[in-house]
Amino acid sequence: MYVYFSGLAHVDATVAALVEIIHAFTLNDFENIDLATKLYLKLLLCPSPLMTFTKIPHGTP
Predict the structure, then answer these.
(1) Domain-wise residue ranges, the chain
(2) What is the reported pLDDT for 5?
């Protein structure tokens, strides 16, 4: 899964929103934890430094 596209605007806000959405799904249903973990890893291992070094707001776990 590559979320980075050439010219994607507001990468920080996009990554933060994705993390919030993934986190919300895990809070609703604990069966989603495995999927959430895989998605978090894909975000962290993304080859684009814009994605991997995005600072997530402190309110997000």
Answers:
(1) 11-52
(2) 53
Q: Long-range contacts of range 15-22, CB-CB < 8 Å, 24 or more positions apart?
A: 15/43, 15/51, 15/54, 15/56, 16/54, 16/56, 16/57, 16/60, 18/43, 19/43, 19/56, 19/60, 20/60
Between 12 and 36, the higher pLDDT residue? 36
pTM greater than 0.70 (yes/no): no
Q: Are 3 and 46 in contact (CB under 8 A)?
A: yes
- Cα(42)–Cα(40) distance, integer angstroms: 5
Cα 26 from chain centre: 13
pLDDT (tens digit per residue) in 18-49: 889 999 999 989 998 999 999 988 888 888 77
Paired tokens of 59 = 């309110």
